[in-house]
Amino acid sequence: MARPGTVYLVGGGPGDPELTTVRARELLQVADLVMYDALIHRDQLRHCRPGAEVRYVGKRAGRVAERQASINAQLVEAAAAGKRVVRLKGGDPYLFGRGSEEAQHLRQHGIPFEVVPGVPSPLAATAYAGISLTHRDLASSIAYLTATESPDKSASSHDWAKLATATQTLVIFMGVRKLEELTDKLIANGRAADCPAAVIQSASLPAQRTVVGTVGDIAQRARDAGVGMPALTVVGEVVRLRSELRWYDERPLFGHGVAVTRASAQAPALSAALRRAGAQPVEFPAIAIEPAADRGPLERCVCEAGDYDWIVFTSVNGVAAFMDELATQGADIRRLGSARVAAIGPATRDALLQRGLRADAMPDEYRGEAVAEAILATTEGGVSGLRVLIPRAAVARDALPAALTDAGARVDVVEAYRTVEADETTGDRLAGAIAAGEVDVITFTSPSTVHNTLKSLGKQAISTLRGITIACIGPITADTASDAGLPVHISADDYTATGLVEALERHFAQETAP
User: Fold this and answer.
1) I want to staple 368 with a disulfide (CB 3.0 to 4.6 A). Which of 229, 236, 399, 418 is the partner?
2) 37 is known as an active-site residue
């Protein structure tokens, strides 16, 4: 009989994908099957290895959901077949996460398991909301309780007469729909009506909302604010600390929904930078990267790489296509021989470094003309007669090869990859997000993202984007947007993802300045 696989009960943390543990990411990268819950951030699933099965088994109150018995059976079936299974759960597996029940079921069926703790939601929610669960002067005891108990119980197991005042801080899980009933019980059992209270929704995410009041009025305040699930309620004097300790919802881009239109492979870096600034990134890839239509020219140039004097990379995608072809041919960077290497900017430079190459030239201004100037300044005696290879997108500006050709170089421009239109549903999804108020900023990182976004939105593109803040990564992209009839509000001085986010921060800081 085959040895069963292991089930890993993994805590995914409170929501922010950057609060995932190192061990959790390691397991996602090797799992055969990942079964994840409703509160798992989609970016966490990017760590799953290619080819792994990713299965949603989430449960949300008030919605049709996978039954626990079915989840238990799926875990046993997959592990019995020898699969490595990650059961990815929001927060911590053992804190109101039913992880212990799943572990018991696995033990009963002889399935080995491992538990990987996650950042618990009450710790993250209060920290991100500016509330400390304990404080030397205010609270030295905490109680966690859930407002949603097992439906199999004949009566609640909560002893409200003791719970209401047993600890100085009280954290209530899954209670937003019963908040008035819960606060009435607290008051009836001795908790002061004027005791501070807070409700925190979507903790640690850019959509986080915090409503502060007292035990006597927090239910009405949360209702008036339209607070929904998932949410935690905190009761205690520590809530008074929020005015001093809040930080997350004071980040420069907090509350802004930002559309990211770059290709799926490059989107995570920009999305992560936006999230760190407090924004809610929403990815609508307007372009996709595909191999060259005819790979022959790239194959030949890679084969002859050592015959060139300069190899110029104008994008991360160009680096990837060139290096992948080098590997396909069973070679490595030694094939380049004495050829010198140029990069258009920091992202491309870093992509080369990751492949073991250090750029010999990179301009201060990240555009084609500046790359040519940097190469000319770095090459003693000029480039006349030198061979230059530029592996790039099928459609690109000709300023760089033209400048080098005018200087006397023999330039080979080779199609390394193609930029094509992405998912045909992108336009409808983007328009829907704008109409729903989920997006108030759109970012463009290349002329092709502008063209394809407008094409996907159709005839109503300009009117759909009216009132949306338009942010471009640099002047070339900004000119493309302007020529298409879009008002460009932001054009980054530093033509990188980091520079674009910093430009957004400056823009909104000016808007809110007194």
Assistant:
1) 399
2) yes
